Write the structure tokens for this entry.
Amino acid sequence: MTRMLPKLLAASALLALTACGETSTSWDRELGSEVDKGQFGNATMNNTLIQTGEMSYTVALAERFAAEVPDTINFAFNSSELSDEARAILQKQANFIRQFPEVRFRVFGHTDKVGSNGYNQRLGLRRAKAAVAYLTSLGISRSRLEAVVSYGETRPLIATNEAEVRNRRTVTEVSGFVKSHPLVLNGKYAAIIWRDYVQSGVRPHDGNAADGEGNGGG
């Protein structure tokens, strides 16, 4: 019986591993299989960004942008017109963006859920384009505004089917570095992030305006 004990234990372990393999990662799968989810090269790209410092400094700059500058502007119902408050916020964004000619930004357009999906997709894009146009009028190169994206009504801040001003917005975010810039090519990401950094306080975001009424999309 003593001689059979190791065999029984081994058999039990094999059965347990087999059962686990049905509900989780197989124990004999090759190393790195969970890292690569089928998108070839993502793991290598991510490692390169981290090792060169670009990933961490992009995140650091994004956090600084969100802390120092209001990243969101809001719109009246069924409108892509910029209010005076929205222009004032975009001016603050432009002042920040000018400090970092090596950095790209992306503007996302959103709507509330009033109106059709297709209409709101187009309305979100018009709002994003309005924000980008105003930023470029303030001297920001259009090439640095990497993309204008519309999420329409698909990503509301407030879960409601009613008209909601907080859902009618554009959001500006840091998206990465301009690859052709000499500082970036030299790998001086720390110098980029902390250059001219003389304020450490967090500035509160402006409040939202009251809801508007109208027809069409949100």
User: Anything to note?
Assistant: Confidence is low (pLDDT under 50) at residues 14-40, 198-214. The longest helix spans residues 117-137. The chain has seven helices and four strands. The CA atoms of residues 4 and 62 lie 62 Å apart.
